[in-house]
Amino acid sequence: MLSPLDKAYLIENYESQPNIARLVIVAMIGVVCIVAVWRTRRMVHDIAHKSEQSRNTSRFLPSELRGDLSDQRLHQLQQGRSVDVVVMFVDIRGFTAQSEKIGPRNTTQLLSGFREFVLSSTQNHGGVVDKFIGDGALLVFGLNDPVDVAAQNALKATTELSTAITTWSNERAAGGEHPVDVVICMHAGLVIAGAIGGDRHLEFGVFGSVVNEASRIEGLAKQQDLHIVASEPVFKAAALPPTGWHDFGTTVLRGSADPGRLFGKDPVTANP
Fold it and tell me: Which of 242, 239, 219 is nearest to 230 (CA)?
């Protein structure tokens, strides 16, 4: 038989060790759980952050630069390619004078609304917004479609955009705001499409005489107070007659030796 002193000695020296070990194990398990929860939360946050970055990046890049942005893909884009497209310029008429009257806040809201209509009409018909420049936009149809389909889509986008802008302008006028009048011009032909730049800055765009001529058509439309203008190559590419368009005859654009035929029409209004 063990004396009370022996029992006390055994309890003190042998039973406390397993209890301490169990406490250590429980503490370690707790630490592991805390770390696991923290890492899971961090992973979820990183995934959400990357998704947000990707969504925001897509707002700044044309479709050709989204998705695969590997070095190999960027190298291919930098090589450029020749492609038949329809180039469209859209511009707010009298924007500078209007912005001076309505102030910075209303000007920003005006441009935001304008760009939303442009982007929607373009994307609805397979086009790409090459760039927004102030109150203007350069749009391209045909980077991923045959030129006949691209030309037909460009004409459809023009109708949709003109209708939307006219309706929006009427709503603004009814609410006591300044109306909006835009100029839409189209030209078709061969361009060079590709990514231009170096390691610090890269920009996708289309280049060539067709782009320059489309810009001059826009300038001509502004001078002569025209609203929608399309060159003959646009209708030829679309294999459609310019039915419902005014024939302005042949015109020699500044910087061009060859005369070209232009067609125009008034802003398109929504059906009542």
Answer: 242
